[in-house]
From TrEMBL:
It catalyses: L-lysyl-[protein] + acetyl-CoA = N(6)-acetyl-L-lysyl-[protein] + CoA + H(+). Residues 228-282 form the N-acetyltransferase domain. It comes from the Eukaryota. This is histone acetyltransferase. The lineage of its organism: Eukaryota, Viridiplantae, Streptophyta, Embryophyta, Tracheophyta. Residues 1-22 are annotated as: Disordered. Keywords: Acyltransferase, Cytoplasm, Nucleus, Transferase. It comes from Liquidambar formosana.
Amino acid sequence: MGLKQPPADQSTDPKKRRRVGFSSIDAGVEPKECMKIFLVSSKDEVGASDGFCIDPIDLNQFFDDDGKIYGYQGLKITIWVSSISFHAYADITYQSTSDGGKGITDLKSALQRIFAETLVEKKDDFLQTFSSEIHYIRSVVTNGEILQHKASNGHSNDSVGHLEAETSNVEALRMVAGNMPAGLFYSRLVPLVLLLVDGSSPIDITDSKWEIYLLVEKKTDQQGESQYRLLGFTTVYRFYHYPDTSRLRLSQILVLPPYQHKGYGRYLLELLNNVAISENVYDVTVEEPLEYFQHVRTCIDTLRLLVFDPIQDAVNSVVLRLKQGKLSKRTHTLPFMPPLSVVEDVRRSLKINKKQLLQCWEVLIYLGLDPIDKFMENYVTFISDLVKADIIGKDSGTDGKQVIEVASDYDQEMSFVMFKSQAGEASSIQMDENQTNQEEQLQQLVDERVKEIKLVAQKVSLHRS
Protein backbone atom coordinates (compact mmCIF):
# COMPACT_ATOMS: atom_id res chain seq x y z
CA MET A 1 0.00 0.00 0.00
CA GLY A 2 1.58 3.26 -1.13
CA LEU A 3 0.97 6.65 0.46
CA LYS A 4 2.15 9.68 -1.46
CA GLN A 5 2.08 13.31 -0.39
CA PRO A 6 3.57 16.22 -2.39
CA PRO A 7 6.58 17.82 -0.62
CA ALA A 8 5.78 20.90 1.38
CA ASP A 9 6.87 24.30 0.04
CA GLN A 10 10.06 25.13 1.98
CA SER A 11 10.40 28.67 0.61
CA THR A 12 9.63 31.54 2.95
CA ASP A 13 8.94 35.12 2.06
CA PRO A 14 9.42 37.63 4.92
CA LYS A 15 7.34 40.17 3.04
CA LYS A 16 4.29 37.91 3.16
CA ARG A 17 2.02 38.62 6.10
CA ARG A 18 0.58 35.68 8.00
CA ARG A 19 -3.19 35.54 7.84
CA VAL A 20 -5.13 34.37 10.83
CA GLY A 21 -8.67 32.95 10.50
CA PHE A 22 -11.02 30.25 11.60
CA SER A 23 -11.09 27.03 9.59
CA SER A 24 -14.42 25.52 8.67
CA ILE A 25 -15.58 22.20 10.07
CA ASP A 26 -14.44 19.27 7.94
CA ALA A 27 -17.51 17.95 6.08
CA GLY A 28 -15.69 14.77 5.11
CA VAL A 29 -15.75 12.93 1.79
CA GLU A 30 -17.75 9.90 0.74
CA PRO A 31 -15.47 6.89 0.07
CA LYS A 32 -17.05 6.32 -3.35
CA GLU A 33 -16.06 9.85 -4.38
CA CYS A 34 -12.33 9.28 -3.85
CA MET A 35 -11.90 5.51 -4.27
CA LYS A 36 -11.65 3.43 -7.42
CA ILE A 37 -11.22 -0.34 -7.37
CA PHE A 38 -10.00 -2.21 -10.44
CA LEU A 39 -10.05 -5.94 -11.11
CA VAL A 40 -6.92 -6.79 -13.11
CA SER A 41 -5.56 -9.99 -14.64
CA SER A 42 -2.01 -8.91 -15.56
CA LYS A 43 0.64 -6.48 -14.38
CA ASP A 44 0.16 -4.45 -17.57
CA GLU A 45 -3.36 -3.57 -16.44
CA VAL A 46 -2.10 -2.07 -13.17
CA GLY A 47 -2.11 1.69 -13.66
CA ALA A 48 -3.87 1.53 -17.03
CA SER A 49 -6.70 4.00 -17.47
CA ASP A 50 -8.98 1.52 -19.24
CA GLY A 51 -9.00 -1.17 -16.55
CA PHE A 52 -12.14 -2.93 -15.35
CA CYS A 53 -13.55 -0.76 -12.55
CA ILE A 54 -15.87 -2.53 -10.13
CA ASP A 55 -18.80 -0.90 -8.36
CA PRO A 56 -18.90 -1.81 -4.63
CA ILE A 57 -22.25 -2.16 -2.84
CA ASP A 58 -21.36 -0.01 0.16
CA LEU A 59 -17.95 1.37 1.10
CA ASN A 60 -19.21 3.48 4.00
CA GLN A 61 -19.54 0.47 6.31
CA PHE A 62 -15.76 0.09 6.46
CA PHE A 63 -15.13 3.58 7.80
CA ASP A 64 -15.79 4.79 11.35
CA ASP A 65 -18.66 6.92 12.61
CA ASP A 66 -20.84 8.08 9.69
CA GLY A 67 -18.84 6.26 7.02
CA LYS A 68 -17.03 9.32 5.66
CA ILE A 69 -13.30 10.00 5.32
CA TYR A 70 -11.98 13.02 7.25
CA GLY A 71 -8.80 15.07 7.37
CA TYR A 72 -7.56 14.83 3.77
CA GLN A 73 -7.40 17.37 0.97
CA GLY A 74 -7.21 16.13 -2.61
CA LEU A 75 -7.48 12.50 -1.56
CA LYS A 76 -7.35 9.80 -4.24
CA ILE A 77 -7.33 6.07 -3.49
CA THR A 78 -6.77 3.60 -6.31
CA ILE A 79 -6.93 -0.12 -5.55
CA TRP A 80 -6.04 -2.99 -7.84
CA VAL A 81 -7.31 -6.49 -7.10
CA SER A 82 -5.69 -9.38 -8.94
CA SER A 83 -8.07 -11.88 -10.49
CA ILE A 84 -5.12 -14.31 -10.62
CA SER A 85 -4.18 -14.50 -6.92
CA PHE A 86 -6.79 -12.13 -5.37
CA HIS A 87 -4.11 -10.03 -3.71
CA ALA A 88 -4.70 -6.28 -3.62
CA TYR A 89 -2.57 -3.14 -3.68
CA ALA A 90 -3.70 0.38 -2.76
CA ASP A 91 -2.15 3.59 -4.06
CA ILE A 92 -3.09 6.57 -1.86
CA THR A 93 -2.29 10.19 -2.79
CA TYR A 94 -3.37 13.46 -1.20
CA GLN A 95 -2.33 17.10 -1.12
CA SER A 96 -2.33 17.60 2.64
CA THR A 97 -3.89 16.51 5.93
CA SER A 98 -5.41 18.54 8.73
CA ASP A 99 -7.77 17.93 11.60
CA GLY A 100 -10.89 19.89 10.81
CA GLY A 101 -12.73 18.82 13.94
CA LYS A 102 -13.42 15.21 13.00
CA GLY A 103 -9.87 13.85 13.25
CA ILE A 104 -7.89 12.20 10.45
CA THR A 105 -9.20 8.89 9.20
CA ASP A 106 -6.86 5.93 9.51
CA LEU A 107 -6.98 4.77 5.91
CA LYS A 108 -4.75 1.75 6.42
CA SER A 109 -7.01 0.30 9.11
CA ALA A 110 -10.11 0.92 6.99
CA LEU A 111 -8.63 -0.85 3.97
CA GLN A 112 -7.48 -3.77 6.10
CA ARG A 113 -11.08 -4.23 7.25
CA ILE A 114 -11.85 -5.00 3.62
CA PHE A 115 -8.74 -6.73 2.30
CA ALA A 116 -7.09 -8.08 5.47
CA GLU A 117 -4.01 -10.19 4.65
CA THR A 118 -4.58 -9.94 0.89
CA LEU A 119 -3.47 -6.28 0.97
CA VAL A 120 0.15 -6.06 -0.23
CA GLU A 121 2.29 -3.21 1.13
CA LYS A 122 4.69 -2.73 -1.79
CA LYS A 123 3.70 -2.31 -5.40
CA ASP A 124 6.63 -4.37 -6.70
CA ASP A 125 5.58 -7.27 -4.48
CA PHE A 126 2.04 -7.01 -5.82
CA LEU A 127 3.24 -7.02 -9.43
CA GLN A 128 5.37 -10.06 -8.68
CA THR A 129 2.27 -12.08 -7.73
CA PHE A 130 1.13 -12.13 -11.36
CA SER A 131 4.05 -14.41 -12.19
CA SER A 132 4.71 -16.14 -8.86
CA GLU A 133 1.05 -17.17 -8.43
CA ILE A 134 0.01 -17.60 -12.03
CA HIS A 135 -1.05 -21.18 -11.30
CA TYR A 136 -2.90 -20.41 -8.07
CA ILE A 137 -6.38 -21.24 -9.41
CA ARG A 138 -5.04 -24.45 -10.94
CA SER A 139 -3.76 -25.50 -7.50
CA VAL A 140 -7.21 -24.77 -6.08
CA VAL A 141 -8.82 -26.98 -8.71
CA THR A 142 -6.61 -29.92 -7.74
CA ASN A 143 -7.96 -29.68 -4.18
CA GLY A 144 -11.60 -29.65 -5.26
CA GLU A 145 -14.09 -32.24 -6.43
CA ILE A 146 -14.84 -31.90 -10.12
CA LEU A 147 -18.59 -31.98 -10.74
CA GLN A 148 -20.22 -32.95 -14.02
CA HIS A 149 -22.93 -30.46 -14.84
CA LYS A 150 -26.14 -31.82 -16.30
CA ALA A 151 -27.94 -29.17 -18.33
CA SER A 152 -31.69 -28.68 -18.06
CA ASN A 153 -32.32 -30.69 -21.26
CA GLY A 154 -31.12 -33.82 -19.49
CA HIS A 155 -27.88 -34.28 -21.40
CA SER A 156 -24.62 -34.29 -19.46
CA ASN A 157 -22.25 -31.67 -20.77
CA ASP A 158 -20.31 -28.57 -19.78
CA SER A 159 -22.79 -26.03 -21.08
CA VAL A 160 -26.14 -24.52 -20.30
CA GLY A 161 -28.44 -24.38 -23.32
CA HIS A 162 -27.58 -21.36 -25.44
CA LEU A 163 -24.28 -20.90 -23.60
CA GLU A 164 -22.67 -23.99 -25.11
CA ALA A 165 -19.84 -22.13 -26.85
CA GLU A 166 -19.09 -19.87 -23.90
CA THR A 167 -19.02 -22.66 -21.32
CA SER A 168 -17.33 -25.40 -23.33
CA ASN A 169 -14.13 -24.81 -21.34
CA VAL A 170 -15.81 -24.27 -17.98
CA GLU A 171 -15.31 -26.66 -15.09
CA ALA A 172 -17.47 -26.84 -11.98
CA LEU A 173 -16.08 -28.07 -8.71
CA ARG A 174 -16.90 -28.29 -5.04
CA MET A 175 -14.74 -27.62 -2.01
CA VAL A 176 -15.78 -28.43 1.54
CA ALA A 177 -14.83 -26.04 4.35
CA GLY A 178 -13.02 -27.31 7.41
CA ASN A 179 -9.72 -28.00 5.64
CA MET A 180 -6.72 -25.79 4.90
CA PRO A 181 -6.95 -25.45 1.08
CA ALA A 182 -10.63 -24.47 1.11
CA GLY A 183 -10.18 -22.10 4.04
CA LEU A 184 -7.20 -20.30 2.52
CA PHE A 185 -8.90 -19.96 -0.84
CA TYR A 186 -12.14 -18.57 0.57
CA SER A 187 -10.14 -16.13 2.74
CA ARG A 188 -8.83 -14.58 -0.45
CA LEU A 189 -12.36 -14.24 -1.80
CA VAL A 190 -13.70 -12.48 1.31
CA PRO A 191 -12.87 -8.93 0.06
CA LEU A 192 -14.96 -9.55 -3.08
CA VAL A 193 -17.79 -10.89 -0.92
CA LEU A 194 -17.70 -7.79 1.29
CA LEU A 195 -17.53 -5.42 -1.68
CA LEU A 196 -19.98 -7.04 -4.09
CA VAL A 197 -22.46 -9.24 -2.19
CA ASP A 198 -25.10 -7.06 -0.53
CA GLY A 199 -25.49 -7.60 3.22
CA SER A 200 -23.13 -10.55 3.28
CA SER A 201 -20.58 -11.63 5.87
CA PRO A 202 -17.83 -14.27 5.61
CA ILE A 203 -18.71 -17.90 6.23
CA ASP A 204 -17.11 -19.96 9.00
CA ILE A 205 -14.31 -21.74 7.15
CA THR A 206 -13.82 -24.16 10.07
CA ASP A 207 -17.36 -25.58 9.72
CA SER A 208 -17.35 -28.58 7.38
CA LYS A 209 -21.08 -28.11 6.68
CA TRP A 210 -20.17 -25.17 4.44
CA GLU A 211 -19.57 -26.02 0.78
CA ILE A 212 -18.07 -23.77 -1.90
CA TYR A 213 -19.07 -24.36 -5.53
CA LEU A 214 -16.76 -22.83 -8.14
CA LEU A 215 -16.91 -22.12 -11.85
CA VAL A 216 -13.47 -21.90 -13.46
CA GLU A 217 -12.53 -21.31 -17.06
CA LYS A 218 -9.81 -23.55 -18.46
CA LYS A 219 -7.69 -22.34 -21.36
CA THR A 220 -4.52 -23.61 -22.99
CA ASP A 221 -1.74 -21.08 -23.56
CA GLN A 222 0.78 -21.01 -26.43
CA GLN A 223 3.13 -23.28 -24.49
CA GLY A 224 0.41 -25.89 -24.14
CA GLU A 225 -0.10 -25.31 -20.41
CA SER A 226 -3.56 -25.12 -18.89
CA GLN A 227 -4.47 -21.76 -17.38
CA TYR A 228 -7.44 -21.41 -15.05
CA ARG A 229 -9.50 -18.34 -14.24
CA LEU A 230 -12.25 -18.03 -11.63
CA LEU A 231 -15.60 -17.00 -13.12
CA GLY A 232 -17.83 -17.19 -10.06
CA PHE A 233 -18.70 -19.09 -6.91
CA THR A 234 -21.48 -19.80 -4.45
CA THR A 235 -21.41 -20.83 -0.80
CA VAL A 236 -23.95 -23.35 0.48
CA TYR A 237 -24.72 -24.65 3.97
CA ARG A 238 -25.80 -28.27 4.37
CA PHE A 239 -28.39 -28.47 7.18
CA TYR A 240 -29.43 -31.73 8.80
CA HIS A 241 -33.02 -32.72 8.08
CA TYR A 242 -34.71 -35.35 10.20
CA PRO A 243 -34.43 -38.25 10.00
CA ASP A 244 -31.71 -39.07 7.51
CA THR A 245 -31.26 -36.35 4.89
CA SER A 246 -30.13 -32.74 4.53
CA ARG A 247 -31.24 -29.38 3.15
CA LEU A 248 -29.05 -27.09 1.04
CA ARG A 249 -29.25 -23.38 1.78
CA LEU A 250 -27.56 -21.03 -0.67
CA SER A 251 -25.93 -18.18 1.24
CA GLN A 252 -23.76 -16.24 -1.21
CA ILE A 253 -23.45 -16.23 -4.97
CA LEU A 254 -21.12 -14.04 -7.00
CA VAL A 255 -20.10 -13.97 -10.62
CA LEU A 256 -16.99 -11.83 -10.97
CA PRO A 257 -17.89 -8.48 -12.64
CA PRO A 258 -16.08 -9.10 -15.98
CA TYR A 259 -18.15 -12.27 -16.50
CA GLN A 260 -21.55 -11.06 -15.39
CA HIS A 261 -24.62 -11.10 -17.67
CA LYS A 262 -23.23 -14.07 -19.59
CA GLY A 263 -25.30 -16.80 -17.96
CA TYR A 264 -22.79 -18.03 -15.38
CA GLY A 265 -25.10 -17.22 -12.46
CA ARG A 266 -27.72 -19.46 -14.05
CA TYR A 267 -25.02 -22.09 -14.56
CA LEU A 268 -24.26 -22.08 -10.82
CA LEU A 269 -27.93 -22.35 -9.86
CA GLU A 270 -28.56 -25.23 -12.25
CA LEU A 271 -25.42 -26.91 -10.94
CA LEU A 272 -26.72 -26.69 -7.38
CA ASN A 273 -30.14 -28.02 -8.42
CA ASN A 274 -28.50 -31.03 -10.03
CA VAL A 275 -26.36 -31.70 -6.97
CA ALA A 276 -29.50 -31.59 -4.82
CA ILE A 277 -31.26 -34.11 -7.06
CA SER A 278 -28.30 -36.46 -7.49
CA GLU A 279 -27.62 -36.51 -3.73
CA ASN A 280 -31.34 -36.68 -2.88
CA VAL A 281 -31.37 -33.83 -0.37
CA TYR A 282 -34.70 -32.72 1.07
CA ASP A 283 -34.86 -29.36 -0.76
CA VAL A 284 -32.93 -26.22 -1.71
CA THR A 285 -33.52 -22.88 -0.01
CA VAL A 286 -31.95 -19.43 -0.29
CA GLU A 287 -30.90 -17.14 2.52
CA GLU A 288 -32.62 -13.75 2.03
CA PRO A 289 -32.58 -13.66 -1.79
CA LEU A 290 -32.19 -10.26 -3.40
CA GLU A 291 -34.75 -9.14 -5.96
CA TYR A 292 -32.66 -9.75 -9.08
CA PHE A 293 -31.41 -13.12 -7.86
CA GLN A 294 -34.97 -14.20 -7.08
CA HIS A 295 -35.98 -13.16 -10.59
CA VAL A 296 -33.31 -15.41 -12.15
CA ARG A 297 -34.14 -18.25 -9.78
CA THR A 298 -37.85 -18.07 -10.61
CA CYS A 299 -37.08 -18.13 -14.35
CA ILE A 300 -34.97 -21.27 -13.94
CA ASP A 301 -37.45 -23.11 -11.73
CA THR A 302 -40.42 -22.17 -13.93
CA LEU A 303 -38.65 -23.70 -16.92
CA ARG A 304 -38.09 -26.88 -14.90
CA LEU A 305 -41.72 -27.02 -13.85
CA LEU A 306 -43.01 -26.55 -17.40
CA VAL A 307 -41.58 -29.96 -18.33
CA PHE A 308 -42.56 -31.64 -15.06
CA ASP A 309 -45.61 -33.75 -15.92
CA PRO A 310 -47.06 -34.26 -12.39
CA ILE A 311 -47.87 -30.55 -12.09
CA GLN A 312 -49.57 -30.09 -15.46
CA ASP A 313 -53.05 -31.33 -14.48
CA ALA A 314 -53.14 -28.99 -11.46
CA VAL A 315 -52.11 -26.00 -13.60
CA ASN A 316 -54.65 -26.82 -16.29
CA SER A 317 -57.41 -27.15 -13.70
CA VAL A 318 -56.80 -23.65 -12.31
CA VAL A 319 -56.41 -22.16 -15.78
CA LEU A 320 -59.76 -23.65 -16.80
CA ARG A 321 -61.54 -22.13 -13.79
CA LEU A 322 -59.96 -18.73 -14.43
CA LYS A 323 -61.29 -18.80 -17.98
CA GLN A 324 -64.86 -19.33 -16.80
CA GLY A 325 -66.91 -16.35 -15.60
CA LYS A 326 -65.71 -13.33 -13.67
CA LEU A 327 -63.96 -13.79 -10.33
CA SER A 328 -65.04 -10.32 -9.24
CA LYS A 329 -68.66 -11.59 -9.11
CA ARG A 330 -67.99 -14.75 -7.12
CA THR A 331 -69.59 -15.29 -3.72
CA HIS A 332 -66.77 -17.32 -2.17
CA THR A 333 -63.02 -17.92 -2.57
CA LEU A 334 -62.12 -20.71 -4.96
CA PRO A 335 -59.15 -23.09 -4.40
CA PHE A 336 -56.47 -21.88 -6.78
CA MET A 337 -53.37 -23.18 -4.99
CA PRO A 338 -51.51 -26.36 -5.98
CA PRO A 339 -52.69 -29.51 -4.17
CA LEU A 340 -50.47 -30.75 -1.33
CA SER A 341 -49.69 -33.89 -3.31
CA VAL A 342 -48.28 -31.75 -6.13
CA VAL A 343 -46.27 -29.65 -3.67
CA GLU A 344 -44.73 -32.85 -2.31
CA ASP A 345 -44.05 -34.27 -5.80
CA VAL A 346 -42.22 -31.08 -6.77
CA ARG A 347 -40.17 -31.07 -3.59
CA ARG A 348 -39.28 -34.74 -3.83
CA SER A 349 -38.36 -34.72 -7.54
CA LEU A 350 -37.06 -31.20 -8.24
CA LYS A 351 -36.07 -30.17 -4.67
CA ILE A 352 -38.08 -26.95 -5.04
CA ASN A 353 -39.50 -25.91 -1.66
CA LYS A 354 -43.13 -24.84 -1.22
CA LYS A 355 -42.42 -21.11 -0.95
CA GLN A 356 -40.48 -21.12 -4.21
CA LEU A 357 -43.08 -23.29 -5.92
CA LEU A 358 -45.78 -20.73 -5.14
CA GLN A 359 -43.67 -18.00 -6.78
CA CYS A 360 -43.43 -20.12 -9.93
CA TRP A 361 -47.08 -21.19 -9.69
CA GLU A 362 -48.22 -17.64 -10.43
CA VAL A 363 -46.08 -17.61 -13.60
CA LEU A 364 -47.30 -21.03 -14.71
CA ILE A 365 -50.92 -19.88 -14.45
CA TYR A 366 -50.10 -16.69 -16.36
CA LEU A 367 -48.47 -18.70 -19.17
CA GLY A 368 -51.49 -21.05 -19.29
CA LEU A 369 -53.97 -18.20 -19.80
CA ASP A 370 -53.37 -17.77 -23.49
CA PRO A 371 -54.35 -15.26 -24.80
CA ILE A 372 -53.63 -13.53 -21.48
CA ASP A 373 -55.30 -10.22 -22.43
CA LYS A 374 -58.68 -11.92 -22.61
CA PHE A 375 -58.42 -13.23 -19.04
CA MET A 376 -56.28 -10.51 -17.45
CA GLU A 377 -59.05 -9.23 -15.17
CA ASN A 378 -59.53 -12.65 -13.60
CA TYR A 379 -55.78 -13.17 -13.33
CA VAL A 380 -55.27 -9.87 -11.46
CA THR A 381 -58.07 -10.89 -9.07
CA PHE A 382 -56.30 -14.21 -8.56
CA ILE A 383 -53.02 -12.43 -7.70
CA SER A 384 -54.88 -9.96 -5.47
CA ASP A 385 -56.23 -12.88 -3.43
CA LEU A 386 -52.72 -14.25 -3.00
CA VAL A 387 -51.35 -10.88 -1.93
CA LYS A 388 -54.14 -10.50 0.63
CA ALA A 389 -53.34 -13.96 1.98
CA ASP A 390 -49.66 -13.00 2.31
CA ILE A 391 -50.49 -9.83 4.23
CA ILE A 392 -53.28 -11.05 6.46
CA GLY A 393 -51.91 -14.53 6.99
CA LYS A 394 -55.06 -16.25 5.75
CA ASP A 395 -54.44 -19.76 4.40
CA SER A 396 -50.77 -19.44 5.36
CA GLY A 397 -51.02 -21.08 8.75
CA THR A 398 -49.82 -17.99 10.60
CA ASP A 399 -53.13 -16.23 11.24
CA GLY A 400 -53.32 -15.17 14.87
CA LYS A 401 -49.82 -16.42 15.71
CA GLN A 402 -47.35 -14.16 17.46
CA VAL A 403 -43.70 -14.48 18.44
CA ILE A 404 -42.40 -12.78 21.58
CA GLU A 405 -38.92 -12.70 23.08
CA VAL A 406 -38.45 -14.11 26.57
CA ALA A 407 -35.70 -13.65 29.10
CA SER A 408 -33.19 -16.51 29.15
CA ASP A 409 -29.75 -17.27 30.50
CA TYR A 410 -29.10 -19.57 27.54
CA ASP A 411 -29.08 -17.47 24.38
CA GLN A 412 -31.01 -14.23 23.97
CA GLU A 413 -31.14 -14.55 20.17
CA MET A 414 -32.57 -18.07 20.39
CA SER A 415 -35.12 -17.50 23.16
CA PHE A 416 -38.73 -16.93 22.11
CA VAL A 417 -42.23 -18.25 22.49
CA MET A 418 -44.84 -18.64 19.74
CA PHE A 419 -48.50 -18.61 20.74
CA LYS A 420 -51.85 -18.34 19.00
CA SER A 421 -53.79 -15.18 19.74
CA GLN A 422 -57.24 -15.49 21.20
CA ALA A 423 -60.23 -13.96 19.47
CA GLY A 424 -60.07 -10.21 19.57
CA GLU A 425 -56.35 -9.99 20.31
CA ALA A 426 -54.24 -7.70 18.20
CA SER A 427 -52.36 -9.21 15.29
CA SER A 428 -48.61 -8.76 14.96
CA ILE A 429 -49.09 -7.53 11.38
CA GLN A 430 -49.22 -3.76 11.13
CA MET A 431 -52.02 -2.53 8.89
CA ASP A 432 -52.91 1.03 7.97
CA GLU A 433 -56.13 1.91 9.82
CA ASN A 434 -57.37 4.01 6.92
CA GLN A 435 -59.40 1.79 4.58
CA THR A 436 -58.59 3.90 1.53
CA ASN A 437 -54.86 3.70 2.25
CA GLN A 438 -55.12 -0.05 2.72
CA GLU A 439 -56.73 -0.47 -0.68
CA GLU A 440 -54.12 1.75 -2.34
CA GLN A 441 -51.27 -0.15 -0.73
CA LEU A 442 -52.80 -3.47 -1.71
CA GLN A 443 -53.26 -2.35 -5.31
CA GLN A 444 -49.64 -1.18 -5.47
CA LEU A 445 -48.41 -4.58 -4.24
CA VAL A 446 -50.62 -6.36 -6.77
CA ASP A 447 -49.38 -4.15 -9.61
CA GLU A 448 -45.74 -4.78 -8.65
CA ARG A 449 -46.23 -8.53 -8.46
CA VAL A 450 -48.03 -8.70 -11.79
CA LYS A 451 -45.25 -6.66 -13.38
CA GLU A 452 -42.61 -9.08 -12.08
CA ILE A 453 -44.65 -12.09 -13.23
CA LYS A 454 -44.86 -10.63 -16.74
CA LEU A 455 -41.07 -10.13 -16.86
CA VAL A 456 -40.42 -13.72 -15.77
CA ALA A 457 -43.02 -15.03 -18.26
CA GLN A 458 -41.40 -13.12 -21.11
CA LYS A 459 -37.96 -14.56 -20.39
CA VAL A 460 -39.31 -18.06 -19.92
CA SER A 461 -41.18 -17.83 -23.23
CA LEU A 462 -37.98 -16.77 -25.01
CA HIS A 463 -36.09 -19.79 -23.65
CA ARG A 464 -38.91 -22.13 -24.68
CA SER A 465 -39.06 -20.86 -28.26
